[in-house]
Design brief:
- The protein is of the alpha+beta class and 199 residues long.
- It folds into two domains: 1-30; 34-195, no CATH class.
- It is built from six helices and five strands; from the N terminus they run H-E-H-H-H-H-H-E-E-E-E.
- It has helices at residues 3-28, 49-53, 63-75, 81-92, 99-109, 114-117; strands at 36-42, 135-141, 151-156, 165-172, 177-184.
- Helix 3 (63-75) packs antiparallel against helix 4.
- The chain is globular and about 85 Å long.
- The protein starts with a helix and ends in a 15-residue tail after the last strand.
Amino acid sequence: MSLFDTLKRAALSALKREARKAVDNAVSNIGKGRNYTEKFTFTALPANVEELKALPEAKLDTAFKTAALTVLALSRYETDPEAAFEMLAFLKGPEALTNSEKSFIKDRLTGKEYKVRSFFEGASPENDYTPNKPYVIPVIENPYSFDNENWATLYVASGGADNPRNIKFRKKPSTGEWFLNDIQCLGDIRLPKSEDKWA
């Protein structure tokens, strides 16, 4: 074998290695740095933390799943605030759901529980934020959602707002689970038609 053949073989081997690395990197970055929406469908809304834990999404192995479960937990606030808080505590993982977080949720949702229903597909001011059934929650990623390692900011679209609302998550590297970090999606939205005196 000539020196030229040896060099050619070494160059091809190096190219294959680099190509393999590029493909591996591309695969590991799927869902990162782009606009992407993942939809979650539920036939019923969980009534308590045990029912929430029984859902396949409760593995919490993606921030998207934790986002969908956060909306489910918040939706329980309307009929059973304590059950909602227990679900959110589960989603917080190693950190406790603090009294200030509970107060924040109470301040944002008391008398305005329709805000959470607005995150389900089909809910709009015109139908008093009545979601379609089965319940579908779209969770949105933008190009900056995974900019910081082990952190994610994902978005849920409200039928009563012009822009999606964000929720923050933190990954526990030792388990691969994504936990709820900060709920920032409960700002005011358009009133339901039945409550809007100008409708």
